[in-house]
Structure formats: structure tokens, C-alpha cells
Amino acid sequence: MLTFTLMKPEGILRLHPSGPLTEQDFERLRTEVDAYLMGHARLNGVLVRAAEFPGWENWAGFSAHMHFVHAHHKRVERIALVTDSAVAGLGEFLAEHFTSAEVRRFPLADERLAMQWLQAAS
């Protein structure tokens, strides 16, 4: 399950995965982000906050996630991974590999610093 908030004035997308990610999660996300990008050149940042990475519900969820990244990665300035997860390093590596965005990892306790870093991109 993926909840998200698009902070339109700041151009920052906040993502909070809290259960296995589904194809429907990325359909909802795509609709919202595509509508925003119709009137804006880019997202200044994406903040992903998760205590642990929940994985995907099935192959369709994984595929929808990869399609979303492929369709939007050139229009994101920065990505902040806010997590204490042991696999965060892998997430950071993959994000750097599959996007043109600048990627940084922050501990959960430093979410405010992560947001400040994203806001500095605008």
C-alpha cells in the first residue's frame, strides 16, 4: 500500500509505502504526478519515508513501479530516502542507477533535514 501527498507549491512528492506495493498504487500515483507535470517542468523532489521496504504485492506491482520510474525519472531533481532499513543502501544504489536525480539517504529521525534538502532544489 502506498500513500502519497503532492506538495504542489514546493513541487515535492511525499511517498509512504506501508504494505506491499500494488499496480493500483502506481496508477493512482501516475495520475496525480502526470497532472502536476502538465503544468510544471519537473518535481523538485521526492521524499520516500519507510521504516522498512514492504516489497510488491506481485509481478504487476513491480512492473508498474518500474514503468513509473522509467516514465518520470528525468523530471525529478532530488530523491530523499528516509529510512532506517538495512536494505537502504541497496535502494540508494538502485535509485542512483535508474534515475538522473540526485539521491540521498537520511535516517528516519532526520526527516526534517531531508525535507530541507529537497526544498533547497527549488
TrEMBL record:
Gene3D superfamilies, A to Z: SpoIIaa-like domains
Pfam families cross-referenced by the UniProt entry: SpoIIAA-like
Domain of life: Bacteria
InterPro entries recorded: SpoIIAA-like, SpoIIAA-like_sf, STAS_dom_sf
Coiled coil: none
Record protein name field: STAS/SEC14 domain-containing protein
